[in-house]
């Protein structure tokens, strides 16, 4: 969609800025050797064109006095992206007699800037600019935060200027919302080290769940593929019908990983996870329990979404010793009392048409939440979808749960783990009555409905949902 193309150009907006300040595009092999390369970044990052010709600045008086054609300079550029659009990274490295003064003038001009208009093709966005406190890098450094919105989606890029040896450079890191300071610092330190010595230690994978590689572990029920990030008490996330690990909004995962070791998995038959002889909710729960055992997670907190919440319930029923606390998102009772969504809503969700799927997940009028989720989803490295035969088998497993013919579903009242049941009040795929029923079935369960939110409420209302989960899991 349109917003994703714009997001992919955000870091290169800074290239337009410095092109205005530095002029020209002459390059040298020596400078290129001291720029970051894809091998210096997490494995999920790839190099892309650094052409910023379609990105420019307008209505920015604080930068208008910068010279457009300073002489005696050479510079080279590099650009990278994780996934398909965002986060992305741009770097410029320059040398020459004029560069020290040009960089100083640029730094002073930026220090006076409070706003700028970014132009992406025919789209304009007004950015707020403020100085940013980061650790000192190289001989000298300064940083500036740029924040704006496109299609209701909040975007930010941090611009870090640095001087090291005979070189002056900048690094621009763009992401949804406000980029994490620790992440920007890690990339900037790598850029400074590369400029100084020609080599650098690779940026660690721990900056985002999307940077983490897919791992596979052999369990008693076959191979299971997973990603993991963070430190602290374990938190297992189980995705829903037709989903993969890449169905999660990475912003939610990264937020939870601040206090937990978060583990995502692909359900049976998806990704590198082994198929089961007969795919049922109970079978997926047993395979999930086998992953918990293989990774030595002990008693773990478990968060399941949609079909994943049924798997989470079955895990708590069949393997209670593995579950410490349970968070059930957009869930359904398994005792035969489920209020089913309409066939029309199910057909829309199962159609595979992006617009119809998003309409089923987010209420009308929530374009910003929908666009933000799609942009976050674009951060993941490309991964194959769940196979059609597996999705069909999942549909039969869900239907068995809804009808009350799944063994674990009928034993929900026996769940002993403290449980939080949560959903959006406008969920079109899971009427709110189901959450109320489930909260009554599970002893002492806590119920929370998010007003005006849909099936993807945990992404739509992440700012409220994450603190709720953290408070519950303490």
Structural write-up:
With 474 residues, the chain is an alpha/beta fold. The protein folds into two domains: 206 residues, PknH-like extracellular domain (Protein Transport Mog1p, Chain A); 265 residues, Rossmann fold, CATH 3.40.50.1820. The chain is built from 15 helices and 17 strands. The strands form two sheets. Strands 1-3-4-9-8-7-6-5-2 form a nine-stranded antiparallel sheet, sandwiched between helices. Helix 6 links the parallel strand 12 and strand 13. Helix 7 crosses helix 8 and helix 9 packs across helix 10. 54% of the residues are buried. About 2% of the residues have low confidence.
Low-confidence stretches: 19-27
Number of strands: 17
User: What's the overall average pLDDT, rounded?
Assistant: 89
Structural class: alpha/beta
- Name the CATH homologous superfamily of the largest domain: Alpha/Beta hydrolase fold, catalytic domain
Task: Give the end-to-end Cα distance, rounded to a whole number of Å.
Answer: 39 Å
Q: How many helices in DSSP terms?
A: 15
- CATH domain topology of the largest domain: Rossmann fold
Cα radius of gyration in angstroms: 25 Å
Strand content: 25-35%
Can you summarize the main beta sheet?
A: 9 strands, antiparallel
């Amino acid at each position: 969609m349109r917003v994703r193309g714009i997001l992919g150009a955000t870091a290169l907006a800074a290239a337009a800025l410095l092109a205005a300040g530095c002029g020209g595009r002459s390059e040298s092999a020596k400078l290129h050797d001291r720029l970051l390369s894809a091998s210096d970044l997490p494995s999920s990052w790839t190099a892309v064109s650094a052409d910023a010709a379609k990105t420019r600045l307008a209505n920015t008086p604080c930068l208008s006095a910068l010279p457009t054609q300073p002489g005696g300079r050479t510079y080279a550029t590099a650009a990278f992206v994780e996934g398909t659009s965002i986060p992305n990274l741009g770097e410029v490295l320059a040398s020459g007699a004029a560069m020290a003064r040009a960089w100083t003038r640029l730094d002073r001009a930026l220090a006076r800037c409070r706003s700028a208009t970014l132009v992406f093709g025919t789209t304009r966005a007004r950015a707020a600019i403020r100085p940013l406190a980061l650790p000192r890098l190289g001989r000298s450094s300064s940083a500036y935060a740029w924040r704006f919105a496109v299609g209701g989606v909040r975007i930010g890029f941090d611009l870090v200027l640095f001087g090291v040896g005979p070189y002056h450079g900048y690094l621009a890191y763009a992401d949804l919302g406000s980029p994490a300071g620790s992440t920007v610092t890690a990339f900037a330190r790598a850029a400074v080290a590369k400029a100084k010595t020609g080599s650098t230690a690779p940026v660690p994978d721990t900056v985002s769940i999307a940077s983490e590689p897919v791992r596979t572990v052999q369990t008693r029920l076959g191979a299971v593929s997973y990603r993991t990030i963070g430190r602290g008490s374990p938190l297992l996330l189980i995705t829903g019908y037709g989903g993969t690990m890449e169905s999660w909004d990475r912003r939610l995962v990264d937020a939870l990983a601040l206090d937990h070791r978060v583990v995502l998995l692909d359900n049976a038959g998806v990704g590198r996870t082994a198929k089961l002889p007969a795919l049922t909710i109970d079978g997926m729960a047993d395979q999930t329990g086998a992953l918990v055992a293989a990774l030595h997670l002990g008693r773990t907190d478990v968060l399941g979404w949609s079909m994943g919440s049924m798997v989470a319930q079955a895990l708590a029923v069949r393997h209670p010793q593995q579950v410490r606390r349970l968070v059930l998102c957009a869930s359904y009772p398994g005792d035969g009392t489920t209020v089913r969504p309409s066939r029309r809503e199910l057909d829309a969700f199962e159609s595979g048409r992006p617009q119809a799927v998003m309409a089923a997940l987010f209420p009308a009028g929530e374009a910003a939440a929908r666009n933000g989720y799609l942009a976050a989803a674009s951060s993941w490295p490309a991964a194959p979808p769940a196979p059609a035969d597996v999705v069909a088998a999942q549909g039969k497993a869900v239907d068995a749960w809804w009808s009350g013919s799944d063994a674990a579903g009928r034993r929900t009242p026996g769940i002993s783990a403290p449980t939080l049941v949560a959903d959006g009040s406008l969920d079109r795929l899971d009427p709110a009555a189901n959450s109320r029923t489930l909260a009554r079935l599970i002893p002492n369960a806590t119920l929370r409905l998010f007003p005006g939110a849909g099936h993807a409420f945990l992404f739509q209302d992440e700012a409220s949902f994450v603190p709720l989960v953290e408070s519950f899991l303490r």
